[in-house]
Amino acid sequence: MKEFCKKVIEEMEQRFSFDIGDIAHKAAAVDPRYKLKGLSSVDSTQIKGALELDLAKILQKHSPTHSEAAAPSIQSSPQLSPVGKILKLAFDSSESDSSTDTDPVSMGDEINKYFSLKVVADNKDPLIWWKENENLFPNLVKLVHKYLGIPATSTPSERVFSVARNTATELRSSLTGSHVEALVFLKANKDLWISK
Question: Which of 5, 52, 106, 160 is deepest in the core (most CB within 10 A)?
Answer without folding.
Answer: 52
